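Thanks for the sequence, V.! I ran Response regulator right away. Repeating your input here for the record:
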Amino acid sequence: MDLQPGRSATYTLRDFSVLVVEDYDFMQGLISSMLKAFGVGNITVCANAREAQTMLNMSCVSGGAVRPIDMVLTDWMMPGGSGRDLIRWMRDHKNEHIKFMPVILVSAFTSEETIFAARDMGANEILVKPLSGEKLANRLLGIIDHPRPFVKAPSYFGPDRRRRIKDIRGKCRRVLTAEKMVTHVESIQSAS
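Predicted structure:
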């Protein structure tokens, strides 16, 4: 099945690889089934952030046994490492593939505080459980069709939190070349 709810573009996701990080077996199966129905070719499941970190590191090894991962869907509250821990670890990672990888938080714990925390950790999107195939497809398509640029600030690294692009009067001061970008991890290392 091609992913195309209400869109003119059609995507074939058979070469797409998604890591599902979820501690509840039923939700692992439900999310995996939805992704299979969308045509996602490779779905890997982990039960917590620590397992996911291992899997992500293994996926970055050239010629390794684990296929490179394109996107992460993670729960927020899990024993053995939370979604918060995983997102923070990803956004602070040295490997650019992991650092810039899209992350969708999928959680039943979606208080305003949780949503703000996930956004401020660097989640690209947030989905509330129980989730529907349509909502999941829309979030996937949102990331594919409208990728947001990443922002580096003293206390934040992740996708631009603004959803609307406004014209800026005067000189744009938000332009930063990759050579001038210093991450949180790099600033800590240079301070030591």
